[in-house]
Write a structure and sequence with these properties.
- With 88 residues, the chain is mainly α.
- The chain has one domain.
- The chain is built from three helices and no strands.
- Helix 1 crosses helix 2 and helix 1 runs antiparallel to helix 3.
- The relative contact order is 0.16.
């Protein structure tokens, strides 16, 4: 069970790094049409899209800022802590 937890922990760390790279790309104006940007976009959008939709459905007005990466990382950390208590 500990090996499964470690594998999930590594996967979540990779996802968090990709989200961070996507944030940096947004500041540098590297869009999804760049080959590297496209890879990062395609790997993070399945996570960030539903979080962005959840923020919209809750009626939270964030203005011009996109808080979905921050909320996605918080949700990933929450899931990981729940899995830690179950698997270890």
């Amino acid at each position: 069970m500990i090996t499964l937890y470690k594998a999930i922990d590594i996967l979540f760390n990779i996802i968090e790094i990709l989200i961070l790279i996507r944030i940096i790309f947004s500041f540098l104006r590297i869009g999804p049409y760049n080959p590297i940007g496209r890879i990062v976009y395609e790997m993070t959008e399945p996570i960030l899209g539903p979080v962005r939709e959840l923020i919209y459905k809750l009626g939270i007005d964030t203005g011009m800022f996109d808080f979905s990466p921050l909320i996605a990382v918080l949700i990933l950390r929450l899931i990981l802590s729940i899995l830690r208590s179950i698997l270890i």
